[in-house]
Amino acid sequence: MALSDLSLDELVRYRPSVREPVDFDDFWSKTLAEARTHDLDVEAAEVDTPYRTTTVRDVSFRGFGGDRVGAWFTVPRGVDGPLPAVVEFIGYNGGRDLPGESLRWASAGYAHLLVDTRGQGARWGGGGRTGDPHGSGPSTPGFMTRGIEHPDTYFYRRVFTDAVRAVEAVRTLPGVDPARVAVQGISQGGGITLAVAGLVPDLVAVMPDVPFLCHFARALDICDKDPFAEITRYLAVHRPRVDDVLHTLSYVDGVNFAKRATAPSLFSVALMDLVCPPSTVYAAYNHYGSNHYAGERPDVRKDIEVYRFNDHEGGESYQRQAQIRWLNGVLGRP
């Protein structure tokens, strides 16, 4: 394994022009307004686990189209609230697993909502339990080309809407301080995190870890690994559809959400990452908060952890501990 993208010196200056539709903000405003015509209808029931230091609740709420979305809500047992909350989104085709299998945020004194990704949860881990009842035209195996014919029908329109609704849901749960909600995720979860960062203006922190779903045009040129390669295979067959596909993808590109973000952020990047090439991560990082920059004086805090010799696994436990320490600092927690 070796470097396969730009050098670090080039990456820190890499701020490409990324395709952005003129109606990007209107598209997402209408999408979220439509979702909010459905009552959030949050349900929560405590579940039994063998863990003695946390309480876990099985939570569900209504996301895109009023569809129910599942999540585990975990809090430290015997700790008085209201607590800051971390909403976590999951990597590609993983699910929320069994209750209590993700304890680090609760162990660090946070409320934690681990959100299923609709339709996914059958490739690794302990599985997911949230379906995606919406249909799709012809697509390659996987999720990247489901509904890619049009922005309205694309899979990630539904996923990102669910994610925004997850933030709204956690703010209603007992023991949560609704003014102190952060979002976090790895890979696909990092891409979802960036989408929420651009769509929810009052988060306290954003932590995208080796984020996927950024700078699609670059990724499709240089990346031959799944999941990006699902789109490559689709376009190898649907040859005349390149511009239409890139148009759809521009509505879900993490770079366009990153521009609109305002919360402090901690990214991570792995310089030997063959799944999410580092130039796609730096495209989002270098644009992060740029809609709110004043000349050369940024008013949006952003930090990045660089793992020079790692592939897509990134920092793993090193990054997990770095996130907790960083978020404690942002919130002024000892």
TrEMBL record:
Residues 1-328 form the Acetyl xylan esterase domain. Substrate binds at residue 92. One of its GO terms (molecular function) is carboxylic ester hydrolase activity. GO terms for biological process: polysaccharide metabolic process. The active site is at 187 (nucleophile), 273 (charge relay system), 312 (charge relay system). InterPro entries: AB_hydrolase_fold, AXE1_dom, CE7. Pfam families: AXE1. PANTHER family: CEPHALOSPORIN-C DEACETYLASE (PTHR40111:SF1). This is Cephalosporin-C deacetylase.
